[in-house]
Amino acid sequence: MAPLNVSMSSKFTQIPPISSTKPLFTLTNPLVSFPGHSSPQLLKCQIKSQENFLFSLCESVTKTSFLALVSASLFFVDPALAFKGGGPYGSEVTRGQDLTGKDFSGKTLIKQDFKTSILRQANFKGAKLLGASFFDADLTGADLSDADLRSADFSLANVTKANLSNANLEGALATGNTSFRGSNITGADFTDVPLRDDQRGYLCKVADGVNPTTGNATRDTLLCN
Fold it and tell me: Where would a tag sit more exposed on the chain, N or C end, judged by fewer CB atoms within 10 A?
C-alpha cells in the first residue's frame, strides 16, 4: 500500500473559556496527499465545543479520500487487538482463555490451540480434535466422549473426572503430571499413549469396554496385564 503523506500547516485560534460554546480551535489548511491523486486534497477538521468533544470531517473530504484515511488508520491499531476473533487454528481465540462450560460438541477443531485454558465442564462430545493442544489446560469434568483426540497433547493437563468414554486417543501425549483420575474411560482407545506407570496402573483398574471406532479393547490399548 502506498504511504499516506500528511503535511500539516495549521493555525489555532485562542482557546476560549470553558463556558464558551464556540469551537476550541479550528484546524485549517492541512494538506493530505492520497495515492492516485495528482494534487493534495484539502482536509478541514473542526473540534467542537468542550461540552461534547465531537469531531467532524468537513465536506471537502471526498469519499475516496475518506476511505484512504480509514485504510491508513489500520496500521495504527493496537497490536493486541489484531488477533481478536481469530486464532491460528480456528475461528476463535482459545489459548489461555477461561472457557468453563463452553459447548464445542461436534465441532471440527483440528490442531486447535487450548494451551493453558480453563476448560472445566466444557463439552467436546463428538468433536474432531486431531492434534489439538491441551498443554497445561484444566479439563476437570469436561465431556470428551466420542471425541477424536488422535495425537492431541495432554502434557501437564488436568483431565480428572472427565468423560472419555469411547474417545479415540491414539498417539496422544500425556507426559509430565497429566492426571486422568476419576475419569470415565469406558471404550476409550489409549493406543501408543505414553503414560506414567502410576497413571497406567490406575486406569487399568477402571478400564472396560471396546472403542466403537477402532474396535480395540480399552484394557488392551493400556497394555494392562
Answer: C
